[in-house]
Amino acid sequence: MESVMKPIRIMKNDREEEDGGEPLSPMSRLFHKPDSNVYIIAMLGFAAPINPEVVKHHFAHTFAKHPRFSSLQVVDEKHGGELRRVKTEVNIDNHVIIPRLDPNMDSPDKFVEDYVSNLSKTTISMSIPLWDFHVLEVKTSEAEATAVLRVHHSIGDGISLMSLLLSCSRQVSDPESLPTIPTARKSNRSKKNNESLLGFLRFLLIKLGLLVLLCWNTGVDVVMFVLTFFFLNDTENPLKAQKLGPSARRFVHTTLSFDDVKLVKNAMAVTVNDVLVGVTQAALSRYLNRKYGMCRDENDDGSRVKNNLPKNIRFRASYVVNTRPFSKIQTFEDMIKEGSKAKWGNHISSILFPFTIALRDDPLDYVRDAKLHSDRKKASLEAKCTYFMARLLLKFYPTMTCGFPTQTSICYSNLPGPREQVSFCGYPLAFIAPSCFGQPNALFVHVVSYVNKIKIILAVDETMIPDPQQLCDDFQISLKLIKDATP
After folding, report:
1. Contact 83, 74 (CB under 8 A)
2. I want to staple 414 with a disulfide (CB 3.0 to 4.6 A). Which of 156, 287, 342, 447 is the partner?
3. What is the largest CA-CA distance in the chain?
4. In the β-sheet with 22-23, what is the strand arrangement from edge to edge?
């Protein structure tokens, strides 16, 4: 991968461009570090065959007009070598790639998987805007055609790109309407307790207690984050990267039933995210137990097997969170309008989220553990503090080589998708499967919702995880066991 960026001069009308462009934010510069040169990659499965020329025309009138997708990232020698965005002309043929494929290939699914994996072995030239879109006209088990969007993470985060993607999409059931995504609801707390003096005092005491809890949790979390940054490692395990540095990734994904997830959620009075984290903990426990047991498998019916897991494993995820107050889809025209209030960029942070790695007699304990840790993290400002510390560190230590915590075992992220089926470029989407590559962690788990499905996408380092499909199966079995145990 490219780790050194040479200065580039922008010419316009045979004269050097006077406009120095917009400087990259500290968080965007973070994704250009040699050991965390990160790209977002999104696999889009279409429910119908697509016309590549229609796709090319669509991108020429949407993505190619977006300020961040029509700008070069150049090194400004006049300002200490900082990276800046400079507007340029976009040649759509450099960005929309349509390879010639054999329609009678033996294994289309394997071909698409290999194709996407090979994209993680290359980078996009700094002489053009850092994105491309690959159209694969081949039918797979899940889609009539597949497209792959690859974007350098410095252009924006997952929420930004999902917002842009959906701003160019429309509901299949209502072609004039933008897609909708779930947003956090504000709680409607009763004000009856404040009508009397006693109720008001009780309200103040509760608020004071919550404030003390918030300060305590934040202080503990920040100290743990600093200790982890310097030396506090997770327990060595088969999923934890032994060496720093990015490597090629293989991307596999599996589909869970959203209805099954909501059934568990409603029965246990937890959130959808609590259930999904619980399922992830259960799946990783199954997988690691097999690895520690040297090929000893578990029974699919959940019957008791030998516990090969070491006790008290410290296993944490670098949990990527959105720091925006809410997510909202805007029209494409509003997004590219000058002075737009669209919250574009890298407004993300990470928290240290402890995962329970153990074999539970009651599968629901995985969900209970997830809720316990999730509620604890909600009563903390860890994400905002780590975001501030990252900006501060980049300002005073710009030569920092890695932007991802490498002492944790895995990375984890979830992303809300549209509630209804949508069409992109005029063609209905069967699935959306985003992920990342370029980070040093051996396993990155992405979770995204779409209509009545949940996609689990695994980005794995094959030298450490040679059997990612087995881990996908563990997710399926874990959700089934948790659902069957639900009262």
Report:
1. yes
2. 447
3. 78
4. 22-23, 82-87, 71-76
pTM of the model: 0.88
Q: Which two tokens stand for residue 123?
A: 């980078």
Query: Would you put residue 211 in left (φ > 0), alpha (ψ -120 to 50) or beta?
Result: alpha
Q: What integer pLDDT is reported at residue 5 of this predicted model?
A: 44
**Residues carrying an active site annotation:** 153
Q: Mind listing the pLDDT tens digit for each residue in 187-223? A: 444 444 445 777 767 777 787 888 899 999 999 999 9
Residue 340 has pLDDT above 90, yes or no: no
Rounded CA gap, 456 and 434, in Å?
Answer: 9
Report how far residue 186's alpha carbon sits from residue 63's, in angstroms, rounded to the nearest whole number. Answer: 33
Give CA–CA dist 487/258, Å, rounded.
18
The least confident of 148-162, 262-276, 471-485 is 148-162
Please state the three-class secondary structure of the chain as a single string: CCCCCCCCCCEECCEECCCCCEECCHHHHHCCCCCCCCEEEEEEEECCCCCHHHHHHHHHCCHHHCCCCCEEEEEEHHHCCEEEEEECCCCHHHCEECCCCCCCCCCHHHHHHHHHHHHCCCCCCCCCCCEEEEEECCCCCCCCEEEEEEEECCCCCHHHHHHHHHHCEEECCCCCCCCCCCCCCCCCCCCHHHCCHHHHHHHHHHHHHHHHHHHHHHHHHHHHHHHHHHCCCCCCCCCCCCCCCCCCCEEEEEEEEHHHHHHHHHHHCCCHHHHHHHHHHHHHHHHHHHHHCCCCCCCCCCCCCCCCCCCCCCCEEEEEEECCCCCCCCCHHHHHCCCCCCCCCCCEEEEEEECCCCCCCCCHHHHHHHHHHHHHHHCCCHHHHHHHHHHHHHHHCCCCCCCCCCCCCEEEEEECCCCCCEEECCEEEEEEEEEEECCCCCEEEEEEEECCEEEEEEEECCCCCCCHHHHHHHHHHHHHHHHHHCC
Spatial contact of 418 and 451, defined as CB atoms under 8 Å apart: yes
Angle, alpha carbons 448-37-155 (nearest 5°): 60
418-446 pLDDT tens trace: 889 999 999 999 999 999 998 888 999 99
